[in-house]
Amino acid sequence: MAKLGVREKIVAAASERFHALGYNACGVQEIVDAAGVPKGSFYNYFKAKELLACEVLNTYWADAGLEILADTSVAPLERLRRHFQHIASRYKKFGFERGCLVSKFMHEVSDSTPVLWKELRKQVGRWTALVAEAIREGQGDRTISNSIDAEATARFLIESWGGVTGAMKLAASRGPIDDFFSVAFGPLLQPGSPTPRKRKARV
Amino acid sequence: MAKLGVREKIVAAASERFHALGYNACGVQEIVDAAGVPKGSFYNYFKAKELLACEVLNTYWADAGLEILADTSVAPLERLRRHFQHIASRYKKFGFERGCLVSKFMHEVSDSTPVLWKELRKQVGRWTALVAEAIREGQGDRTISNSIDAEATARFLIESWGGVTGAMKLAASRGPIDDFFSVAFGPLLQPGSPTPRKRKARV
């Protein structure tokens, strides 16, 4: 494997440290210590922690399985499932205790770090558009219910996912992700779909 | 109005500062400065920032409208709506830019602050139980659909809410809350319910 350059070492260390600690609790010193590079060299590559965080976000998204959403060889509903399952599989290696980097940043930072904030908005917007497109495609071929609003449902799937990952972190378990699939995916299904959703209610 | 004691001043200032900055970015110095009390006096009242954060959480929950959920004089579905609308109304005064204190803490802290972490788990568990109870009651009197699993739906409503508040903060708008009501509440409705949910799909 090729040896990492200083820049790559910084990005790799920051990706791990930001995910573990969040944006505010992770300073430049923490990152250069983890990367094993002198602090002085940091500023040769990044003018500010905020700009490094944007690059870390891009690295994080690169493995978010967005290409799964766009793979038209797979039925739209199945693509949506595989996409979110792919993200969930990334949390498993941390025992579900780390949550999602994007949601962490969303809760922690604000427009006082305007470059990072704008990047977050842009990326969440792109993600939402891909999910909405898959829903509309499923509605077009009647594999996804036409009684839902594709745009509102796409937004809500993504909005809710951020909370699901926080709850997963709190519970240190996959349970909230299972709730997401059983509850949030329910309205997408065509009536009479075989997927089990009903359980006897306690009255 | 009675003059606040030092302890109350610290709790009030911490409530505002934690909500604005999050747990990690808000230190004891920030809190005592905002409270206008000497730093030395802080430790007469709180052994650690973590214990103050637990008290702040309790203050936050005291105005979360949990009593609305338990008010059996109102129909269960309406109670659920009023409860979440009550929480949403608290965000409005900050232009929807602050998010939810509970979700912020959930994403930022971990079991490295075990007292706060345990408190968060306990409070979220109590909240979930109240929401599940309202859903079961609505299923009992047939005002809420019996095709949903009351427990999973209650968990998901609360899990998703944490993401909705993050998205609201990112968008600086109420939009994600409206998505929550139109999408997440959909499965609770009885089939044929007059609440508008359907919009013409783009095919």
Give a brief description.
With 203 residues, the first copy, chain A, is an all-alpha fold. Chain A contains ten helices and no strands.
Written description of the protein model:
Two copies of one chain form a homodimer. With 203 residues, chain A is mainly α. Chain A has helices spanning 6-21, 28-35, 39-45, 49-62, 66-69, 76-92, 101-108, 114-140, 150-171, 175-184. Chain A has two domains: 6-56, Homeodomain-like (Arc Repressor Mutant, subunit A); 63-188, Tetracycline Repressor, domain 2 (Orthogonal Bundle), CATH 1.10.357. Residues 196-203 of chain A have low confidence and may be disordered. Chains A and B meet through helix 7, helix 8, helix 9 and helix 10 of A and helix 7, helix 8, helix 9 and helix 10 of B.
Radius of gyration of chain A: 19 Å
Count of distinct structural domains of chain A: 2
Instruction: Assign the CATH class of the largest domain in chain A.
Output: Mainly Alpha
Number of helices of chain A: 10
| CATH superfamily membership of the largest domain in chain A | Tetracycline Repressor, domain 2
Considering the chains and any ligands shown, give keywords for the structure.
homodimer, mainly alpha, Arc Repressor Mutant, subunit A, Tetracycline Repressor, domain 2, 10 helices, disordered C terminus
